[in-house]
Amino acid sequence: MPFRDVLGQPHAIETLRRGLSRGKLHHALLFAGPPGVGKELAAFAVAQAIVCTVAPGEGCGECAACHRALPADGIPLHPDVVLVARGLYGRDVLGRSTEEKTDISVDQIRRVVLDKINLTPHEAPQRIVIVRAADELSAGAANALLKTLEEPPAHTRFILLSARPGELLPTIRSRTQLIRFAALTDELVEKILVGRGVEPEKAKRIAPLAAGSASIGMTLADPQSADARLHAVEALRAAATGPLPQALEATSAYANTGEARAELREHLAAFVAEEAGEVRSLVLAQAEAGGGNDRDIDRALARRDIAVALVESLEKNANVPLALEASWLHLRRR
Ligand SMILES: [Zn+2]
């Protein structure tokens, strides 16, 4: 996945390419932007540019080093490309008695990053450490990493990825160079969906609902649960707009299980898309009428934002009924 395959992020890619070609890439980068817009693809493109044996500084995407730089079964095989992510490594690797459930533990930073960081890279001129969802670093993990960012070891580069950069420690943020990733255009989401095997007609219909995210688009394109999803979106909409007791009752069906969490996450992705569509049509109607009701737009935006926040808290394994309850309360306070 070299740079040419990262679509719709010309500014970010230009900054990275320029830094690499001049040998001036900051040692710690923070890729910030919504989910599903190419942050991780770009991070692995940087990894390939660093380890590639055919086109160093650019990455050919074809050589053995480029292939091994990408995650296979979750973890890159190249010894100089290190991926940090919650739940990626087993208890034995991390030396823990329990699985990592809610955050990236300090054990992972110690075992996967700090234990290796002072050794010279195995094959490539530099080592690269990619932290997926860096806002999930536990306080201990963030502090352990911070020490390393403050006194960066030679030969090591860091890329932190986050859809919620505001939740990172300010001290970590200040040690990194921010690279922003924007939401994708509808046309590009459509193109990406078609490239991943979605029928063109369907991709055209779904793309405007995907809120600029290829991953939300793929979730919406999944035919397996279209009916259930439609039903759930109606129920969620009713819960978000109706009286609180009914909202709580409507969502009491979601138990606190991994399955319910996955199902709810999918339904929420559809809900976010619906609200984004609603905002868009309200704005268009307002433009046509030459003035109109900002409150309706604000409300639809609030519902969308809260659903996005809810998806994120579910990804952190929050308790499902409690997370829903908190969201409905939050909406009513606005
Ligand atoms: Zn290569």
Observed structural traits:
single chain; 334 residues; alpha/beta; Rossmann fold; 15 helices; 7 strands; binds zinc ion
Report on this model:
The protein has 334 residues and is α/β, with parallel strands linked by helices. It contains 15 helices and seven strands. It folds into two domains: 3-180, P-loop containing nucleotide triphosphate hydrolases (Rossmann fold, 3-Layer(aba) Sandwich); 222-333. Strands 4-5-6-1-7 form a five-stranded parallel beta sheet, with helices on both faces. It is globular and about 60 Å long. The two termini are 43 Å apart. The site of zinc ion has 9 residues, from α3.
Q: What hetero molecules are in the model?
A: zinc ion
What's the CATH C level of the largest domain?
Answer: Alpha Beta
- Number of DSSP-assigned strands: 7
Helix fraction? 40-55%
Distance between the termini: 43 Å
Topology:
Blueprint: H1 10-21, E1 28-32, H2 39-51, H3 64-69, E2 71-72, E3 75-76, E4 81-84, H4 91-94, H5 106-117, E5 127-131, H6 139-150, E6 156-162, H7 170-174, E7 177-180, H8 186-195, H9 200-206, H10 214-221, H11 226-241, H12 244-250, H13 258-289, H14 294-315, H15 320-333
Parallel strand pairs: 1-6, 1-7, 4-5, 5-6
Antiparallel strand pairs: 2-3
Helix pairs in contact: 1-2, 5-6, 8-9, 8-10, 11-12, 11-13, 13-14, 14-15
Bound molecules: zinc ion.
Zinc ion binds at residues 52, 54-55, 59-60, 62-63, 65-66.
